[in-house]
């Protein structure tokens, strides 16, 4: 199961000199183009599956088949990518002035600032917009090329995080309660190591290091930005966080030897195989646990912080963005988005991949029909989110993925200084 993440897919595109094609503005997905004329729109999306049996191609294929039956003059061409090459595919397309009509899975702020995207209100219906979970929809707002704040990112799927632990290993190690603090984690990890297992799984590799970093820095009153909204990646709190990880988990051998080389999915599979005692996870971990040997020997609890559990867990959203490079595709783009964001397709996606919806009606249904997802859905309103509306988030996030693992094997201040420099480069 690949991860839900606000991918830094468009960070490289920020430096490209591109001009957006003009488009006629309207609301509710209408435009001056003739919707009766045959048109083909393109959708570039990542594969959320872990194999051909649940490949995302099948999910989108079902939607496309039903949509084309309703709108026979519109064809939808799916361009699928892995999470590892999604960023490259989009960047290459932008460099070649061949942007897809729709891109799902990544950040949006940098390309919105260049005037390359439609505003959400210009392409989808008011009904679709009003059905989005409000606090998640707000995450899609940023300043466009005109300097005005507007919604450009349309949330497609969401997730929150929790702390998972192996109850069988806890019992064998004589641990009776879930850890509440970092000190508890270190103490429990040492007991689990004595059993011949890895105490804590710390994925700081390139797959989703920005999430693990955020979880730990939130636990020390830090994060990516300060209370005033300024980038604060190299803050004293964040430096202290990585010093603690180094001295209390990594150097004592309570994690993997080099967390910077470990990706989340691989460690989740190790946890599911019973080889790791504790790990941070999302609902996307649940199907991996079903496939593993751990059985029902696990529980989830609030994520420990330095002095107590987090009251604001990490929330993550993947967005859809609509490029305006083909004005005659505008109506078809809006029609497809209205169709694809229907409750039945949101629920199908979330049940398939154990992720969370972006729409209110699907969230209400899934809370009742899928008890395993309800705690994660309930955490959405209080979650702390990536600063995805800042155009510098995408390059900063990519830099985190590239080098933050070194912060637990070398000088953390030097590593965080480098990330801070990327985040503030154009401010």
TrEMBL record:
Gene3D superfamilies: Periplasmic binding protein-like II. It holds the Pfam family SBP_bac_1. Residues 1-20 form the signal peptide. Keywords: Signal. PROSITE patterns: PROKAR_LIPOPROTEIN. The keyword Signal applies. This is Extracellular solute-binding protein.
């Amino acid at each position: 199961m690949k991860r839900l993440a606000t991918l830094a897919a468009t960070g490289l595109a920020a430096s490209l000199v591109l001009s957006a094609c003009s488009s006629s503005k309207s609301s509710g997905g209408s435009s001056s183009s003739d919707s009766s004329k045959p048109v083909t729109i393109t959708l570039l999306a990542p594969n959320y599956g872990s194999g051909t049996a649940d490949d995302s191609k099948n999910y989108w294929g079902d939607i496309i088949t039903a949509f084309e039956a309703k709108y026979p003059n519109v064809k939808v061409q799916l361009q699928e990518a892995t999470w590892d090459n999604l960023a490259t595919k989009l960047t290459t397309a932008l460099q070649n002035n061949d942007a897809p009509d729709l891109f799902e899975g990544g950040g949006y702020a940098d390309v919105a600032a260049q005037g390359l995207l439609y505003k959400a209100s210009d392409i989808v219906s008011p009904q679709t917009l009003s059905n989005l979970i409000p606090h998640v929809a707000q995450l899609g707002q940023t300043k466009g090329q005109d300097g005005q704040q507007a919604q450009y990112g349309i949330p497609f799927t969401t997730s929150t995080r929790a702390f998972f632990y192996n109850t069988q290993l806890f019992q064998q190690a004589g641990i009776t309660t879930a850890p509440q603090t970092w000190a508890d984690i270190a103490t429990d990890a040492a007991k689990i190591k004595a059993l011949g297992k890895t105490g804590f799984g710390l994925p700081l590799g390139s797959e989703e290091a920005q999430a693990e970093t955020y979880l730990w820095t939130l636990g020390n009153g830090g994060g990516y930005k300060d209370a005033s909204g300024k980038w604060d990646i190299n803050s004293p709190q964040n430096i202290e966080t990585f010093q603690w990880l180094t001295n209390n988990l990594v150097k004592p051998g309570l994690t993997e030897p080099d967390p910077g080389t470990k990706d989340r999915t691989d460690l989740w599979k190790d946890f599911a195989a019973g080889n790791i005692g504790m790990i941070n996870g999302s609902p996307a971990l649940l199907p991996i646990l079903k496939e593993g040997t751990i059985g029902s020997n696990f529980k989830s609890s609030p994520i420990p912080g330095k002095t107590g559990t987090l009251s604001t867990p990490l929330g993550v959203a993947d967005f859809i963005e609509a490029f305006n490079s083909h004005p005659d595709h505008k109506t078809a783009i809006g029609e497809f988005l209205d169709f694809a964001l229907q409750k039945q397709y949101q629920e199908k996606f979330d049940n398939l991949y154990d992720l969370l919806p972006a729409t209110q009606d699907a969230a209400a249904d899934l809370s009742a029909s899928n008890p395993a997802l309800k705690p994660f859905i309930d955490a959405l309103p209080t979650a702390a989110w990536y600063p995805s509306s800042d155009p510098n988030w995408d390059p900063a996030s990519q830099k985190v993925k590239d080098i933050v693992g070194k912060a637990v094997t070398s000088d953390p201040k030097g590593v965080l200084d480098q990330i801070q420099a990327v985040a503030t480069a154009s401010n």
